[in-house]
Amino acid sequence: MKLVPYFLQKKETPNLVVYRLTLFLMEGGKSLWEIGSETNEKVIQTEYLQENGFYTSSIEKLGDLYFAHLDPQRTSLKSFYTWEEIQESQDKKREDCFRTFTFCFEQPHEKLWFHSDICEQPFDGRKETPYALFQGLKNHCYKKV
User: Is the separation of the CB atoms in 37 and 18 below 8 Å?
Assistant: First the structure.
């Protein structure tokens, strides 16, 4: 099983919808968080998330992934590295970090207009890409987004 703590922001203009998906990733921002296969939401909340300073507004299970929507008021981003910080230092290349991916869609039907090539690269040892995770969140977990 994998745990995907995230923030998702949406901004709309008359012509575009822009989503910023910020994921907490392992191994220098290249891997999803591996958790035990015999787990449930309560264990995830207490032993994985709260113990590490993460507070959620919801947890959704999709296949073998648990998506943990982080509460931005209670989760302090300053306590964690960002992707940009670990790229600047050789000593931090393998640190866990928050990494942001941006997706732009044309209005009115949200046709994909732009995302970088990095959004199509699979995470280490996985078939999922940042774009696939975003699609899963948007289509299955947060249809109201």
Answer: no
Joined together, the tokens standing for residue 4 give 């995907």
How are beta strands 2-12 and 97-106 bridged, if at all?
unpaired
* pTM score above 0.90: no
Measured at the CA of 124, the angle between CA 120 and CA 126, to 5 degrees, comes to 75
DSSP state, residue 92: G
For residues 45 and 89, what is the distance between their CA atoms, to the nearest angstrom? Answer: 31
At residue 15, φ and ψ (nearest 5 deg) are -110, -20
Instruction: Going residue by residue through the chain, which has 145 residues, state the pLDDT in tens, using 9 for 90 and above.
Output: 999 999 999 999 888 888 999 999 999 888 999 998 888 889 999 999 999 999 999 999 988 899 999 999 999 888 899 988 888 877 777 889 999 999 888 887 777 777 777 788 888 767 788 888 888 888 776 554 4
For residue 53, report the phi and psi dihedrals to the nearest 5 degrees. Answer: 90, 15
Helix (H) or strand (E) run with residue 18 in it: strand 16-25
In this structure, what token pair is assigned to residue 26?
């392992």
Taking the CB of residue 125, how many other CB atoms lie within 10 A of it? 10
